[in-house]
Design brief:
The chain is mostly helical. The chain has one domain. Helices cover 68% and strands 0% of the residues. It contains 13 helices and no strands. Helix 2 packs parallel to helix 11, helix 3 runs antiparallel to helix 4 and helix 4 packs parallel to helix 11.
Length: 281
């Protein structure tokens, strides 16, 4: 039909077909994968949070735990959304984030001797990044590399940065061992690189390959199967994406449960057992 009508008629036909195509993708997703298991895990995690079944670490580490769990639910919802719209490449972007979150959780919480200091690293980093942008722009203006109006724009985004003083810089130096008054890359909030953090946990996935998914890389395209489509996937890539996401979510839930009283893992025991069965649905 397309190609035999005028341009707008063709588009109207295409527009009518689009919802049916999306519906077919979602039906196929629920028929051939374990996406329902992922849904159930996510809902149980949210219930445990909302019903206050988790025992958070006291003080600042508890606040970090809540922020990371919120990040986990958001990334999992985003993964499901991508799969519902037939974007397996987009889905891997969120799989990558879940693996990074699992590594971040391990970094912060696995050692009681460092949990307070590493929680502080997490919580202070947004302030550090905002100040560093201000300081870098300030130095660029002084060197004549950018116009003063650029500094005004940066300050408008976070007016408090103009009040950062020696006490703040001394505290940040103690936390990160870096002098943020100088013009250099601020690095990342944790020690080492994200690859170092991933290597510290057994995620069971090739992070190097997964990390290519957000980029214009033929390595990332392999995740979508033999041929990348506008929407949709081949059955193998669809199943693999959901299995990898399930594994990442479950591993992160195990870590959360270990740090938050153990109730969560008991609550998702049925889903965990189903996932671990070799002949799962």
């Amino acid at each position: 039909m397309i190609g035999q009508l005028g341009p707008m008629d063709e588009f109207e036909t295409y527009l009518r077909d689009y919802p049916r195509a999306m519906s077919a993708i979602r039906d196929d997703l629920r028929r051939t994968t374990r996406i329902a298991l992922l849904d159930q895990l996510l809902i149980k995690l949210m219930f445990c949070v909302e019903a206050r079944r988790l025992t958070y670490p006291p003080g600042e580490p508890g606040e970090v735990a809540k922020e990371m769990i919120a990040k986990l639910t958001q990334e999992t919802f985003a993964f499901i959304g991508c799969m519902n719209f037939g974007s397996v490449v987009g889905a891997y972007t969120h799989i990558r984030s879940i693996h990074e979150l699992q590594a971040a959780w391990h970094y912060v919480f696995h050692d009681p001797a460092t949990v307070n200091q590493r929680s502080r690293r997490w919580r202070e980093w947004p302030r550090v990044e905002a100040y560093f942008l201000y300081r870098r722009t300030q130095l660029d203006v002084a060197a004549g590399d950018v116009e003063p109006a650029e500094l005004d724009r940066v300050v408008a985004l976070a007016p408090w940065v103009v009040h950062v003083g020696p006490t703040d810089l001394a505290e940040w130096f103690q936390i990160y061992q870096k002098d943020f008054s100088k013009k250099h890359s601020p690095g990342v909030w944790h020690e080492g690189t994200i690859s170092d953090r991933i290597r510290a946990v057994d995620t069971g996935v090739d992070y190097h390959t997964v990390s290519h998914a957000p980029h214009a890389s033929p390595v990332g395209h392999r995740l979508a199967g033999e041929r990348l489509k506008l929407v949709g996937w081949d059955p193998g890539s669809q199943t693999l994406a959901v299995e990898v996401a399930l594994g990442a979510l479950l591993q992160t839930i195990v870590r959360i449960s270990e740090s938050c009283g153990g109730v969560l893992l008991q609550f998702v025991d049925a889903e965990y057992t189903t996932f671990m069965r070799a002949d799962g649905p």
